[in-house]
Write a structure and sequence with these properties.
Elements lengths: L35 H20 L38 H13 L6
């Protein structure tokens, strides 16, 4: 009973694969580690989005770093297997903090 549900939904811990896997084979891409230019591009895209939101008149901005989105992947040892400066110490994960700092700088000071 319940065999068609994921292990975590059945009250068991799911094992984490040793190699990256697509969420749905044949549908999604297999994740790959971004290099420094790729990480810089991600930060710049977040910053550009913040500027567009400010120009569009949004009153506040939320930087979402949970639920399996890109930034959350840097916050958990279950998903962050990097061996460079973007892995390891979870007390100061560099990419989410870099993005937060860049977005805060681009966002108007008078808005949350």
């Amino acid at each position: 009973m319940g065999g068609d549900r994921p292990a975590a939904a059945r009250g068991q811990l799911a094992l984490v694969a040793a190699s990256p896997l697509p969420y749905r084979p044949g549908v999604n891409q297999t994740p790959a580690a971004l290099d420094r230019p790729g990480l810089t591009a991600v930060r710049e895209e977040f910053t550009a989005a913040a500027r567009r939101a400010a120009r569009s008149g949004f009153d506040l901005l939320e930087l979402h770093a949970a639920h399996g989105y890109l930034l959350s992947g840097f916050l958990s040892p279950l998903t962050n297997h990097r061996t460079d400066a973007y892995g390891g110490d979870l007390e100061a994960p560099p990419l989410p903090l870099e993005v937060l700092d860049a977005v805060r700088e681009a966002w108007p000071d008078d808005r949350p």
